[in-house]
């Protein structure tokens, strides 16, 4: 399931970027007394779940500037919050960013405990992991991409006043900084 979500997210980003490159770009207007757009990005990803993280990385590797917004103070969604095993039965069927993730999980255990340790055996080639390890791996993957800006503690509420539409598409959104309670406006060519 996780692999499928990561693949869908990556395909959606690439398809949207292709459409955005050909479409005329609307200039977002400021509505409802919100502050001016706090930033403009090629891709804005809402929620730093595994799918969101991989969509951000795929877009960044394709040359896009990316904003990754996360409601909580942690990235990684369920794997970083207690779901410590993937549900993939056919290990050879995985690839791409997911394979990179599990490879890094295994490398963590090899480096920390040694290649013949029980921890390496228990990690089942990186498919089983502690939530703190998953988060650390996701954070490391994101840190390698300077074109990705990660903002934690940003709440998006799906209300009409928090989205800005132009030319039949989404061009901006407003989130709330959970620490300050202040609204922030972000514009993008593609939203995931």
Structural key phrases:
192 residues, alpha/beta, 7-stranded mixed sheet, 22% strand, disordered N terminus
What is the gist of this entry?
The protein contains five helices and seven strands.
Protein model, in words:
The structure is a single chain. By secondary structure, this protein is an alpha/beta fold. Helices cover 36% and strands 22% of the residues. It is built from five helices and seven strands, in the order αβαβαααβββββ. The chain has helices at 2-22, 50-61, 96-113, 118-122, 131-143, and strands spanning 39-46, 66-70, 148-152, 154-155, 163-166, 169-177, 183-191. Strands 1, 2, 3, 4, 5, 6 and 7 form a seven-stranded mixed beta sheet that branches. Strand 5 (163-166) and strand 6 (169-177) form a beta hairpin. The longest helix has 21 residues, at 2-22. The chain is elongated. The two termini are 18 Å apart. Mean pLDDT is 84; it is low at 1-37.
């Amino acid at each position: 399931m996780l692999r499928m979500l990561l693949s869908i997210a990556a395909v959606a980003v690439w398809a949207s970027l292709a459409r955005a490159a050909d479409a005329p770009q609307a200039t977002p207007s400021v509505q409802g007394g919100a502050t001016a757009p706090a930033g403009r990005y090629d891709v804005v990803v809402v929620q730093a779940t595994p799918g969101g993280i991989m969509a951000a990385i795929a877009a960044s590797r394709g040359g896009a500037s990316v904003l990754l917004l996360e409601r909580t103070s942690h990235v990684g969604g369920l794997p970083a919050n207690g779901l410590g095993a993937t549900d993939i039965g056919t290990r050879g069927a995985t690839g791409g960013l997911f394979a990179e993730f599990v490879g890094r999980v295994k490398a963590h255990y090899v480096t920390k405990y040694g290649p013949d340790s029980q921890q390496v055996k228990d990690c089942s080639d990186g498919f089983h992991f502690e939530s703190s390890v998953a988060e650390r791996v996701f954070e490391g993957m994101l840190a390698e991409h300077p074109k990705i800006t990660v903002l934690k503690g940003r709440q998006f509420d799906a209300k009409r006043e928090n989205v800005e539409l132009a030319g039949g598409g989404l061009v901006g959104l407003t989130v709330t900084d959970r620490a300050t309670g202040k609204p922030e406006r972000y514009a993008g060519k593609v939203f995931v």
